[in-house]
Each structure stands twice: as C-alpha cells, then as structure tokens.
Design goal:
Keywords: Hydrolase. Pfam families: ANTAR, PAS_3, SpoIIE. This is SpoIIE family protein phosphatase. By secondary structure, the chain is α+β, with helices and mostly antiparallel strands. It folds into five domains: 129 residues, no CATH class; 174 residues, Beta-Lactamase (2-Layer Sandwich), CATH 3.30.450.40; 128 residues, 2-Layer Sandwich (Beta-Lactamase); 103 residues, PAS domain (Beta-Lactamase); 228 residues, Phosphatase 2c, domain 1, CATH 3.60.40.10. 39% of the residues lie in helices and 24% in strands. It is built from 23 helices and 27 strands. The strands form five sheets. It has a six-stranded antiparallel β-sheet with strand order 3-2-1-6-5-4. A hairpin with a 2-residue loop joins β17 and β18. α3 packs across α5 and α20 packs across α21. The longest helix is centred in the first third of the chain and has 41 residues. The N terminus is likely disordered.
C-alpha cells in the first residue's frame, strides 16, 4: 500500500518552490499516532526498517499534505508491524494454552510474566516458544546463530551486515507476515522488511522455476513496478544469478553486478548479490535473490543459513499459492497429472513417467516408474508390466553410473532444464549380463514428475544380441537338418559343445550314436525313432565323447518339420550343456547322504545323553525318608532331544550321619553336559565323605572342575543337614538361592558369595547356616524352573515365591497324604519358564 504513495521529500521540494515557509507550530500541531499492538502492545519492540523518521516543518498546504502522507505511511508501517507481532504472540499463546491447559487470558498473563522474568521482550519470548515447539529450519538457524557467537561486538568491523539481537524473531516475523499475505509480492516485502533490511539488503526477488527451464518473477520488493515488469519472465538459457543457483543447486554469491551475470535492477543496486535455491523433495521450485546497494563482506555461515531458511519460506509460499480460480471442479494437481498421463500416452515413442521417491532427510533416493505408455518396449526385452511399478534403479541399476540416466533424470528434476540426446547409452542387467543399446532420449520436468522418452535405433540387432546372450548364458546351441538333402546347420555354440572347429562338418542325427557313450546309445535310438518315424517332438540326455577326451553331459531336444502334405522335411532342435547341473546334482546327493549320516550320529549322541541322564536321575523318583527329613525330587527333561542338559541333584546320608543335599547345572547341552554332570556329582559325593563343610567342598569341587575336566563350567548349591540340632550349613557357586517355606510364608534365603565352578583355578566360597524348624520346607532348583526371556531374574524369583505359597496352600487344601509331592507337581505345572531347558527341583521337609 505504501509503495503507491508519493515520496514526502518530492512533495516538500515542490512546496518550497511555490510558497514561503510556514510557522513551525503548524506542522507540529499534527498528531503523531502509532497503531498500538492489541492487548500487549509489544509490536513497538519489533525491529522493522530502521528508526522512525519524524517529518520536519513543511511550508504551505503542500507541506501539510506531505506531513500527512508521512504520518499515514508511518501509521501503516506500525499497523503492519502490530499485525505481524500479534500473529507471533497468538501462536505462542496457543502453544501455552495447549501445554498449561489454561485459558487465553491466563496464557497471555503467563507470556508477559515470563518475558519480564527473562528480561526479554514479549515478541522475543514468543519467537523462542515457537522455535521450541516447531523444531524446523528457522529454529535450527536460530540455534546455529547462537552457537556461532551471536552478533558482532561493539567496535568490530561494521562492513559486514549488522545482525540483530534475535534472528529467530526476525525470521518468525517474516514467516507470520508471509502467511498473512495475499500474494507472493507480499511475501517478498515481508522477507525484505523483517529479515533482510536489518542486514542492509536493499531488495529481494522470488523467482519461480518453470518446467521448460525459464524463470518467472513471482514476487519482488525494493524495485519499482516498471523494473519488475521488465523482468517478469526470463527465457531458458539466459544467464542470471537465479539461473546460476539452479544450475549449481546451491547458494551462489556475486560480489557485484559487474562481476556476475545480468540481473534485475542492475543500475539501481550494483553491490553484492546472493541467490539461494529452495524447494521440496529434491525438486527446486524457486530462487530467492537478495540484492545490496554496495559490496558487502563475506557473510558468516549462520547468516547464510538464515538466507536458506528464508528461501524455504518462499518455496512454501509458492507451493501453497492458488493456481486455479475458485469454484473449479477438480484440483489443479489432479488436472495436471491427468493431462500429463494423456501426454505420455499420446507419444509415438516409448515413454515413462517418473515420480521422485524421498528418503528420511527429504532428498531424492530413487524415481518410481509410475506409468508407461502403450508404445513402451523395454530394450532389454522385458514386458512392460515388469518395468511399470518398479523404481528406476531396480529396473535399470546400471543407470546409476556417473553420467548415466539416473543422474540425468535427477538433474532435470532438480533444475527443470530439459535434456535431449541423440546418442544416449542405455544399459540393463538381465541375469547378471549387461545389455547395452543406444537411443535418442528426451527428459523434461512437469510439476513433480519427469517424462522420459527414448527411441532405440536398431531393433532387429538388439533382439539378435539378446538372443545371443541368452544362448551363451544357457550354453544352448541350435541346429537344423534338411532330411531331403542330408545337410545339417549348426551355430557356433554347438561346435563349441562338440569340441570341433567351425570348419568341421556338422554331425547328423544318424551319426549321433557314434559320438555318445556306449551306455547311452539305446536312449539315442529311441530319440531318433520318435522324431523320424513317429514324427513327434522328443528329448533325451546323453554323455557326449569329444575328440579331446572330455565327456560332456548333453540334453538334446528337437521337433519334426512337416510340409503342407504332412511329409517330414527337416528336424530343428537345440543342444544344451547340462554338465554343471549334473555335477551339482551329484554333489547335492553326496551332501544329502553326508547330512543324513551326521543327523543320525547327532540323534545317537542325543539318545546316549538322555539315557545317561535318566540312568543317574530318573524323571520320576519317589520320596526319600532320611533321618529327620522327607525329600521329594522332580526332574523335567528338555522338550527337544538336542537340548538335553546337565542338571543334577543328590541327597545321601554321609558316614557322619549328616545329610548331603545338593543341586547343580552344567553349562551347555548334549553328551558333554551329561558326562560333565556325572563327573561333578560323583566327585562331590566322594569329597563329602571327608566331613568338610559346604564351602570347603565347593572349593575342592571347583579345582576338580577347572583342572580335571575339559572346559566344563557349572553352578551348584551344596548343603549339609545335621539332624541332631536341625542345622543346615550351605554354600553356593553362582547358583540361584534356595526358597524357604515356613508357616505358609515363602521367601528366598539371602544369597551368599561364590563364583561358578570352573571359572578360576582357585576360588573361595562363603558359608552360611540356617536353623530349621519342624514343618519347614526348603526348595532347591535349577534355572529351568523360573527363567523367562521377557523378565529380569529378580522378577522371576518374586514370581517363584508367590507361586510357592499358592502351591503349598493348594497341596494342604487337597488333604493329600503326600503334600510335599503335590507341592512340587504344582510348581512344575504352573511354572512360567519359556526357555525349554531341563529342570531339577528338590523339596526338603523337616519332620
């Protein structure tokens, strides 16, 4: 709006030429109002185009008019600033309402209080809140600026653009103004006023990249309407700063207009120019060109990142700008896509429609072949259905080579520049064989899609080459024999299969038996009779004896050729070398036989381990009544034979009248674990006869495990019960602690220190004592009872304690004459373990 008003300086000059100076109080009497920011009044803190200028006294009527115009301009600027600032504050209030679950009034009060407490303006705090919530490019730019050290200190070189205190506030204000704008010119004005003017920039231009490689001036600020009209369209191929940025696909800088390509307003702003491309999904849709009146110093990376954020803001504004008049029946994107499909289908050459596929960072990773026209013929011989729906790199992986088709498509999609070539190499990979052809190709971008059209030059030679490759891969050679003349024709592959030079005479069907293995001559005879006498297609396999002594396994297939009177005139067929397949089958047969033997040996080892384990520890064992104790044992083997483990237990009265109680678990499965279990169990029995305590017994057993066994490790709990005073001395080697059940309450016995058996040469074990009472039940077990993949060990132990109390109650309520056995059965039945490991469980009840 203000751009249409005459400059106040021009009106003042005209007035001075006509009238004398008026009294100073005439102009001073004009009220100077400013549009206050609704509710908070924070817009006055927003950095806009610079300090306010107050018009001095102007003479006469024209002077009053000039002062009025200047005041109206100032009010318009302040009203625009208030609206832009209000938009930021309303966004911040909305975020606070959602986070604090409060009303609008309370959110505004909170915003003002937080700003006062942080000693910042309300607008700066609103921008920070929006940055934290958005986490977008503008927020990243603000963080980079702070990390870079902020603005230049006082007294530093001021030739570089002066940075404001809060770049996030400038960028957010420009974003808010752009969102409220009606057209792209408003967006350009907002970007210049709020973000670029504080950096001493004089103008900003937003260029829209067109599919044909041209540029359209979508919006500008800082240039006259006449200059913008002269540059409203830039044809393809014309060098400009914006075109340089599109070609480089990166930010470009020119120190002056004279040192760079021609551009808009080159006589008005002759200083530094920076062009920044931007877009979505790897597709560059616009360029933001920033102009200075004089040459500026190199901007720091944080400032260049702000320029990139502003260019992205312009790209979003262009993307959301309406392209069809209101009331249209179909969306513009759908209409364009339908027109594009009609265009591709109307082509007389093979055509593909490529759609970009983006990765997690928004960059182009591949192109989807979303559509092929009816004239599409794959130069590699594949049907159109095998290509449509695949990605470009899946269908043509070798196109990713430098300078290949993929790189060309990516460039056309990014820049919008069409590409044409009369000699483009196309390569496809079929069964690991590269097939190459030369084609005339054309690429062009239409919206977010790329149309690819090609025309292969020599179709017949391409098909012949494809057939030759197929024959070479399959080691297939064709032949034909004219039965009327007796002449036979071979291709090069058949001569190679026979080991004959190309000048040798071909072998006819009646001579075939001479060249095969004697044991295969009957098969050759049946093959020839089927062809010549029964006149039916036939095939057979035989061993070919070559002149060089090499034997080849050959498969031959042929069919008779009949004339119009059903007379046999010729035979056509093919030879195929199947030697590799034959020897592969032989190797597979040997492998299968060896595998079956190995499986049989493994099954035998598993059966032996299981028999050994059952011999030492039967699955079901009746209760033992020792002096003062009733002992019941339950053993649950693993569900699979190969999972046979090394769980073991023992309960025996020693010569000292004390009772040895132990349970252990040897690491691993199979025959090694079973034999290790037997060795440790028998060793502990022998050591216990010495009368030593449990800690000493485990120390000796550790030495046996470490020195006298072959890489065996195990955990164990060893206890000695004295019936005289009902005292239980015990120690453990890395094993789970026992569970004590007394008067219906269960708890784990506090664990003692002790490393697992076999880990170290010498190890000390801690010994503890339990004073048992009549009716107490002590349970010793292995980890197969409680271990679960989805729980910690402590959670599993807590579950066992709770299950023990329930099981004891169930056994007593059932009035079973043997509640201890019923207790153990209940624990095994309701155990939640999921490791399929074997389990050993001992219940010891004090009588």
């Amino acid at each position: 709006m203000s751009a249409d008003l005459p400059a106040s300086g021009e009106l003042a000059a005209d007035a001075a030429a006509e009238t004398a100076a008026a009294p100073a109080e005439t102009a001073g009497a004009l009220p100077e109002t400013a549009g206050p920011l609704p509710e908070s009044g924070a817009a006055a803190e927003l950095p806009l185009r610079g300090p306010r200028r107050t018009a001095g006294p102007a003479p006469g009527v024209l002077g009053r008019l000039a002062s009025t115009v200047e005041r109206l301009r100032r009010e318009v600027r302040e009203a625009q600033a208030a609206a832009d600032g209000r938009a930021l504050i309303e966004l911040a209030k909305g975020i606070l309402i959602g986070r604090l679950t409060c009303g609008p009034a309370e959110a505004e009060a909170q915003l003002a209080a937080l700003a006062e407490r942080a000693n910042v303006t309300v607008l700066e705090l609103a921008a920070d809140i929006i940055n934290q919530a958005a986490q977008d490019g503008i927020a990243d730019t603000a963080r980079e600026f702070v990390a870079a050290g902020g603005p230049a200190p006082h007294g530093a070189d001021r030739s570089a653009p002066a940075e404001p205190v809060s770049p996030a506030l400038r960028l957010r204000t420009a974003e808010a103004a752009a969102m409220a704008g009606d057209d792209i010119h408003t967006v350009a004005r907002s970007v210049l006023d709020h973000a670029l003017a504080p950096l001493d920039a004089g103008a900003a231009v937003i260029w829209e990249a067109q599919p044909d490689g041209s540029l359209r001036l979508a919006g500008s600020a800082g240039f006259t309407a006449e200059e913008a009209a002269r540059w409203h369209y830039v044809p393809p191929g014309v060098p400009t700063p914006a075109r340089s940025a599109l070609t480089a696909r990166d930010l470009v800088r020119f120190d002056s207009v004279a040192s760079g390509p021609p551009g808009i307003g080159r006589r008005q702003l002759t200083g530094t120019r920076i062009a920044v491309p931007a877009g979505f999904g790897g597709r560059l849709t616009c360029v933001l060109e920033i102009c200075w009146a004089a040459r500026t110093a190199e901007q720091p990376p944080a400032v260049l990142r702000q320029f990139e954020a502003l260019a992205e803001l312009c790209a979003r504004a262009l993307e959301s700008a309406p392209e069809i008049p209101p009331g249209a029946l179909i969306p513009a994107a759908d209409a364009r896509l339908r027109e594009l499909l009609d265009l591709v289908d109307g082509l007389h050459d093979p055509g593909l429609l490529l759609k970009p596929l983006l990765d997690d960072r928004g960059a182009v990773a591949d192109f989807l072949i979303s559509h092929v026209n009816t004239r599409f013929v794959d130069f590699a011989g594949r049907p159109a259905a095998a290509v449509a729906g695949a990605t470009l790199l899946e269908a043509y992986p070798l196109s990713a080579e430098p300078g290949g088709l993929f790189q060309l498509v990516e460039h056309v999609h990014a820049t919008g520049e069409p590409y044409r070539s009369a000699n483009l190499g196309l390569t496809a990979l079929i069964d690991d064989v590269p097939l190459t052809t030369t084609a005339e190709a054309a690429l062009s971008r239409h919206g977010d899609h790329v149309v690819c059209v090609w025309r292969t030059r020599d179709e017949s030679s391409r098909v012949a080459s494809l057939l030759q490759h197929a024959q070479r891969l399959g080691r297939i050679g064709g032949f034909e024999e004219d039965l009327r003349t007796g002449a036979a024709t071979w291709n090069e592959t058949v001569f190679d299969l026979y080991g004959l030079p190309p000048t040798a005479p071909p072998v006819t069907l009646d001579q075939l038996a001479v060249h095969c293995h004697p044991d295969d001559r009957h098969a050759i005879g049946r093959f020839v009779r089927t062809l010549l006498h029964h006149r039916r297609p036939a095939d057979t396999a035989f061993r070919l004896n070559r002149p060089d002594g090499v034997v080849r396994h050959i498969r031959i297939v042929a069919e008779p050729v009949l004339d119009q009177w059903s007379r046999l005139t010729a035979v056509r067929g093919a030879y195929q070398d199947v030697s590799a397949q034959h020897w592969t089958e032989v190797a597979l047969a040997a492998t299968r036989e060896q595998l079956a033997h190995t499986e049989e040996q493994a099954a035998a080892r598993n059966r032996l381990a299981l028999q050994l384990q059952h011999a030492i520890m039967p699955v079901g064992r009746g209760p033992l009544d020792l002096t003062g104790l009733r002992i019941a044992v339950r053993y649950r083997p693993a569900e699979k034979d190969h999972m046979v483990g090394g769980d073991w237990y023992d309960a025996v009265t020693l010569p000292s009248k004390r009772i040895l109680l132990c349970v252990g678990d040897v690491a691993g499965h199979g025959i090694e674990a079973a034999t290790g279990m037997v060795a440790l169990r028998n060793a502990l029995r022998g050591l216990a006869a010495t009368g030593s305590g449990p800690a000493q017994l485990l120390g000796w057993l550790n030495n046996v495990t470490h020195h006298l066994t072959d890489h065996v490790t195990a955990t164990a709990v060893c206890a000695l019960y004295d019936p005289a005073d009902r005292t239980l001395s015990w120690a453990r080697a890395g094993h789970l602690p026992p569970v004590l059940l007394r008067r219906g309450r269960a708890e784990t016995v506090p664990p003692l220190g002790g490393i697992l058996l076999g880990a170290l040469a010498d190890a000390d074990y801690e010994e503890g004592t339990l004073q048992l009472e009549a009716g107490d039940t002590l349970m010793m077990y292995t980890d197969g009872l409680i271990e679960r993949k989805d729980r910690t060990l402590q959670e599993s132990l807590d579950g066992l304690v709770a299950l023990t109390e329930r099981a004891f109650g169930a056994a007593r309520d059932a009035r079973d004459p043997a509640p201890l056995e019923r207790h153990l059965d209940h624990l095994l039945t309701h155990s939640s373990a999921d490791t399929d490991d074997d389990t050993c469980l001992i219940g010891i009840q004090v009588c």
